[in-house]
Amino acid sequence: MADLSSNFLGIKSPNPFWLASGPPADKAYNVNRAFEAGWGGVSWKTLGEDPHIVNVNGPRYASIMSNDRRVIGFNNIELITDRPFQVNLEEMRQVKRDWPDRALIASVMFPMNEASWAKLVPIIEDAGVDGFELNFGCPHGMSERGMGAAVGQVPEYIKQATEWCKKYATTPVIVKLTPNITDVLYPAEACLEGGADAVSLINTINSIMRVDYDNLTMFPTTGDMGSHGGYCGEAVKPIALHMVAEIARNDKTKNLPISGIGGVTTWKDAVDFIALGASNVQVCTAAMVYGFKIVEDMKTGLNNFLDEKGMNSVQELVGKAVPSVTDWKYLNLNHVDKAVIDQDKCIKCGRCHIVCEDTAHQAIEYSNNGGDRVFTVNDDECVGCNLCVSVCPVVDCISMVAMTTGTDPRTGKAISPKASDWTTHPNNPLKVS
Amino acid sequence: MNDKKLTNEAMNIKPHRLSKQEIEDNFTDLHPPLSAIEALIEADRCYFCYDAPCTKACPSDIDVPGFIQSIQSDNLTGAADKILSENIFGGMCARDCPTEELCQQACVRNDHEKKPVEIGLLQRYATDSVLNNGVQLFSREEDTGKSIAVVGAGPAGISCAHRLAVLGHKITVYESKDKLGGLNEYGIAAYKTINDFAQQELAYILDIGGITIKTGMQLGKQINLEDLQQQYDAVFLGCGLATVNQLNLDNENISGVIDAVEYIANLRQTSNKDELMVGKNIVVIGGGMTAIDIAVQSKLLGAEQVTIAYRRSKNIMAASEYEQALAKKHDVQIQYNVSPKRLLSADSNVTAMEFDIMQSQNDGSLMASGENITLKADVVFKAIGQKLVTEGLIENNSLQLKKGRIVVDEHRKTSLAKVWAGGDCVLDGDNLTVSAVQDGKLAAISINETLTQGA
Ligand SMILES: Cc1cc2nc3c(=O)[nH]c(=O)nc-3n(C[C@H](O)[C@H](O)[C@H](O)COP(=O)(O)OP(=O)(O)OC[C@H]3O[C@@H](n4cnc5c(N)ncnc54)[C@H](O)[C@@H]3O)c2cc1C
Ligand SMILES: Cc1cc2nc3c(=O)[nH]c(=O)nc-3n(C[C@H](O)[C@H](O)[C@H](O)COP(=O)(O)O)c2cc1C
Ligand code: SF4
Ligand code: SF4
Ligand code: SF4
């Protein structure tokens, strides 16, 4: 059995699965239940200055579901904690006493003035928290008031607020980033400059879920009108993974520890984040969709995976896939893949054919001899685009196989064992010679 | 119905074998309709195959992945339109098609997980939505001034009439019975089409107008083909197979020996199924859908012992594996390789039936093995196929028949001028509702082309 225990910035937890700041970590009642269920830590629902904010008294959440009602994407217009500062603080103090082996992080969001940080950071630390997470990500409501994403979108503000927090905190400071920016490296580098111990990402993405088809209003609404919310859940994982990997492979930020957030629903999602550079993961939507019990499979699944890989700890997996991430311009343009269909597995649905025929390269041929349907790849046309693989309903039925010798029948060019990329390509006006 | 033949005083043939409630419960939907969520989940299973094998296997060319995609997107009217524009009896076919031998047999999910998409149930879900809500999807094109006679108001005739009416022609349907629908109304097993569905569907179909119905008009009696040819621009024959084959045994007329089709017609028409006379020991002669249907329905009416006696072996039985399994599920025995030899009787009531046990020869022919078997029976149902009534059809003309059926070309045109035909009455049909509907549609398209080309 691999060791699942986690040490993130010196903050210890029995496993790398934390609940992200949000409703699952809203108050002692939920957090006690989460710890009983086996979660490694929580980032408490974001604290703010009193008087506490208020939430709408109507729909805060909406989801995108598949036809069998599986939640694929989720959004919310919930603000930070809507309970008094002191109430949260006392609960946090008690929870940490009751669960000393679990990580307890204080998520905070204060205005852009030093006095607030100077006053509140030490009081919170006194409650026994293991560290801070600065919520510079909430994209709705709070951002209208100059906090949350409004800070996270301006690197100078990030640096400034981080410095204030670091100045008054003795425990580690994690900065939680918003994905509602053009290049995550600017905020990430600002965190570094402000002295952050780590970053966590992503917070939610600006979104409107859909229209109400009866009333032709946006959906959902509070009464007659609605407001954009933050998108999260399974659908956002690829966006989060990209941002995590960018930070993990960027020279300046590559040593900045990362807590991965965004769509984690199973242990596989955790493997994605960790292999792309995160040291642990945080979960919000999946817990809201399935309840706390899902952590059981996350733990056993990750454990079995590590065992199969011969890894003794989560630490060994961290960043394993990062070296495989590069810029497009460095991809080997001499590499040639062709789709290969395993005719024994093929169920003759023809999806590969029609998508290739209509929208790609006319490289999958169809013959029908008296009901005997056969789909075959024409190597003369196949560009190896992977569209067929992406739509085939049968697992491992089509594979991309690299040509290692001979001539690519599509281009008539011999397969070169030498790698060659865009930087030196003759068609590149800016090629290096 | 011929109650004279069901008067066994020994009380082996009697009504009320089950309570009214039990019978009601027995005759609910064989395949209950899908709920909205079931339909969405099932629709999600479709892969939208290219040149879809299920569509190829549907005798009426329904764009199956097309309509399933519309179910997926909550576009039920679009889904129903896709179905009904190819097959106006899409509602009945969804209930009575042997899908396990048609569309669903071809579904690629069989290869993937041995479980096809439930196309029939999805088709029912989509068509029910427009039928139940009275959404009329069809309207008539401008009047063409042409008029066409249709003989027989079964699925073939009405399908033809509907398509021609849509195309702007005026149709007169001549039907010998009082009620419309043909075997949809009189033949299909009761548990496949509950709640008077056949009439509900017909009302929807005829609602577009342009179709005049004349019941009580039998070709060969009140009307004749020559007159129709003269009075109308075209004639469609959809008269089905109006009589049944006989066993040709000596004492076939004794009490208790009954045509299955006739009994089923009665069963379909009665509002008190518990009043039907039901035997205790029943023997069904035949191997097709009718045999299965009479056997299962007899069981559901409370018969104790029901045996289907089939002349040949299991694998060439016309009833599909699925239907044979359905019968067995209802505790019906199936006796293969037995050929009717004679009827035993007492006081001219049947008491048992004796069979030759047959052996298949290498060349596929059957030979009596010399051994016999006797099955106790107070009712023997004959379900050995139906026959075309040629009276009124072939007098004074040269209508070409073969094997007792009307010969037609690919457009369902007969050898006679201005006369088309389709459904059970034509040669090489596969005696299914869906094929009858397709025949009617193809004939209508051909009639329309012929009539408008001249214009
Ligand atoms: C018991 C039974 C069960 C069946 N179950 C199924 C099933 O589950 N699924 C399936 O797909 N198929 C089933 N079939 C077959 C299916 O019912 C037929 O293939 C289909 O009804 C044929 O349609 P049709 O219009 O050609 O003939 P019919 O439905 O027989 O209609 C013919 C019409 O013409 C009328 N008619 C006949 N002669 C004249 C005349 N001389 N003048 C005027 N009108 C006339 C008749 O009264 C009738 O209304 C079953 C058949 C039987 C007998
Ligand atoms: C209902 C809801 C409330 C949230 N509230 C907060 C919050 O108070 N503070 C915060 O930092 N993030 C908050 N988040 C963002 C989550 O912590 C997390 O970053 C985001 O939802 C992506 O992760 P997920 O896909 O696992 O949900 C909230 C998310 C949801 C769905
Ligand atoms: S998509 Fe896959 S299963 Fe379908 S025809 Fe192509 S290779 Fe076969
Ligand atoms: S009409 Fe019958 S065979 Fe055709 S798709 Fe519908 S259920 Fe299947
Ligand atoms: S064969 Fe099956 S999966 Fe393919 S289109 Fe037809 S119903 Fe859908």
General description of the model:
The complex is a heterodimer of chains A (about 425) and B (about 450). Chain A has about 425 residues and is of the alpha/beta class. Chain A has 2 domains: about 5-325, TIM Barrel, CATH 3.20.20.70; about 330-420, Alpha-Beta Plaits. Chain A is about 30% helix and about 20% strand. Chain A has helices spanning about 30-35, 85-100, 115-125, 150, 155-170, 185-195, 235-250, 265-275, 285-290, 295-310, 350-360, 385-390; strands spanning about 5-10, 10-15, 15-20, 40-45, 60-65, 70-75, 105-110, 130-135, 175, 200, 205, 210, 215-220, 230, 260, 280-285, 335-340, 365-370, 370-375, 400, 405-410, 415. In chain A, the strands form 7 sheets. An 8-stranded parallel beta barrel of chain A has the order 3-4-7-8-9-10-15-16, surrounded by 7 helices. In chain A, strands 5-6-14-11 form a 4-stranded antiparallel β-sheet, with no helix packed on it. In chain A, α8 links the parallel β15 (about 260) and β16 (about 280-285). In chain A, α8 (about 265-275) packs across α10 (about 295-310). The N and C termini of chain A lie far apart (about 50 Å). With about 450 residues, chain B is of the alpha/beta class. Chain B folds into 3 domains: about 35-135, Alpha-helical ferredoxin (Fumarate Reductase Iron-sulfur Protein, Chain B, domain 2, Orthogonal Bundle); about 145-240 and about 390-455, FAD/NAD(P)-binding domain; about 245-380, FAD/NAD(P)-binding domain (3-Layer(bba) Sandwich), CATH 3.50.50.60. Chain B contains 17 helices and 19 strands. Chain B has helices spanning about 20-25, 35-45, 55, 65-70, 75-85, 90-95, 105, 110-115, 120-135, 155-165, 185, 195-205, 225-230, 260-270, 290-300, 320-330, 435-455, and strands spanning about 15, 145-150, 170-175, 210-215, 235, 245, 255-260, 280, 280-285, 305-310, 335, 340-345, 350-360, 365-375, 380, 385, 400, 405, 420. A 5-stranded parallel β-sheet of chain B has the order 4-3-2-5-19, sandwiched between helices. The longest helix of chain B has 21 residues, at about 435-455. The model of chain B has no long low-confidence stretch (mean pLDDT about 95). Chains A and B meet through α11 of A and α2 and α8 of B.
